[in-house]
Amino acid sequence: MADGAIPDLIAPSRPRSAHAHLAGDLLLLADQAAVFGLSPEDALRMSRALAKGDGATQAELARLGLDSVPAPMPDTTLQPVRALALTVSQSCNMACGYCYAAGGSFGGPDTRMTPEVAQRAIDQLIDSTPPGGAVKIAFMGGEPMLARDLIMGSVRHARERAAARAISIGFSMTTNGTLLRPEDAAFLAEQRFAVTVSLDGDRETNDRLRPMNGGQGSFDRIAKRLAPLFDLKDRLSLSTRVTATPNNLDIPRTVAALSELGFSSVGVSPMLTSPTGKGALQADDLPLLLRAMIDAGENWLADTLAGRPNAFANLATALQEIHRGKARDHSCGAVRDYLAVDAQGAYSACHRFVNDPLGEMGDLDSGIDHKARDTFLRQRTVTAQDSCQTCWARKLCGGGCHHEVLHAGRPACDFVRGWLHFALGAYARMMAEKPDWFDA
């Protein structure tokens, strides 16, 4: 598609009513995040009503009997913390220019978490969980494998403490993959880890965007070290995460390259803020990214409908969320039931808020600051965001990443709506042609 036609992808998704949105013959009720299939005639009437604004839209919803569908009350109730990210290494062996963690150190000195801090954080998590409950622990960085021995010791400690209280426990890690050893793969598989590897494309693209600290490329090094993990992928969850910047917007090519490497799940996350400003997507980049994401989504649709595998995870996730039909009051579980602990033992709203006063949530000595959690959660709920109230996608989106919104506002709303508009159309097609996919 020519660049001049790209804005047309955004136009159909611009808000026309705060109450509803139409994608083909599929109607979304905004407050309920519920979808309804309309006849072609009713879809035409709804399209005309949407063009006239909220009053006409509400009248048409009433005619369809959809004006009384109950909307869930905004849920700002704190949940017990059941997921914890341990920032075990605030340092990194790579030099990605866009790194949200400012080179892994989060703007401070290079630091490693001590076993004492890790065990105290784990103990506080498990001790606050009733017997029979479940918790999750994520190991983050910087590059977490710089703290290999700490991770292994922490997992063993957590397993022992959880077993003593009849608590089930799951582990995950996000890594650049450059330090993995065969024995690490065996350990991660034994412990049933969910492992996410950060990669930004094929060899040329990844080496340009994700060099080692000395400037060398990282792709071949990562590919070699991933081989033992791929050999054990039936015993762990293995995926890759792509950071989309202005310099790697060919998403279909990226998905194909990482699929060829061996990944069956490739997720793409736009880079909207970075400490240096490098790599952040600008307004002119977002329509290009939307075009590329839709192209990758069309590839996923074609392959899935034909029974072929396709690793592009973003559309699969969006379809599952739409099918689930649960209105989102927040974009993620940060603060609500998930916190991070940094190397010094300070709690933060999530792993992106390490060393950020906007996300301070107490520390291991004084305990979790539940008042700060409650204030943060109430302020960040989507119903408290004035700019979201006229957006039909608010209960699908949840208001956006807390860290990005607080530091950059909402520069990507057109992109998000455009993507969700496409996803709604894809959902209608999947329900018509392959509804059993959702059962699986």
Structural class by helix and strand composition? alpha/beta
Distance between the termini: 34 Å
Let me know the number of strands.
14
Give me the number of helical elements. Answer: 15
Q: What would the CATH topology of the largest domain be?
A: TIM Barrel
Radius of gyration: 22 Å
Question: What is the total domain count?
Answer: 2
Oligomer: single chain
**What is the fourth-level CATH superfamily of the largest domain?**
Aldolase class I
Overall shape: it is: globular
CATH architecture of the largest domain: Alpha-Beta Barrel
What would you say this structure looks like, in words?
Keywords: Iron, Iron-sulfur, Metal-binding, S-adenosyl-L-methionine. Residues 78-309 form the Radical SAM core domain. Its cofactor is [4Fe-4S] cluster. One of its GO terms (molecular function) is oxidoreductase activity. This is Radical SAM core domain-containing protein. The protein is of the alpha/beta class. It folds into two domains: 3-74 and 410-439, no CATH class; 83-324, TIM Barrel (Alpha-Beta Barrel). Helix content is 39%, strand content 16%. The chain contains 15 helices and 14 strands. The chain has helices at residues 40-52, 54-63, 115-127, 148-164, 182-190, 203-209, 219-231, 251-261, 285-305, 313-324, 370-380, 394-397, 402-408, 413-433, 436-439; strands at residues 20-23, 26-29, 34-37, 83-90, 111-112, 134-141, 168-175, 194-198, 237-244, 266-270, 338-341, 346-348, 360-363, 367-368. The strands form two sheets. Strands 4, 5, 6, 7, 8, 9, 10, 11, 12, 13 and 14 form an eleven-stranded mixed β-sheet that branches. A hairpin with a 2-residue loop joins strand 1 (20-23) and strand 2 (26-29). Helix 1 runs antiparallel to helix 2. The protein is globular, with a radius of gyration of 22 Å. It starts with 19 loop residues before the first strand and ends with a helix.
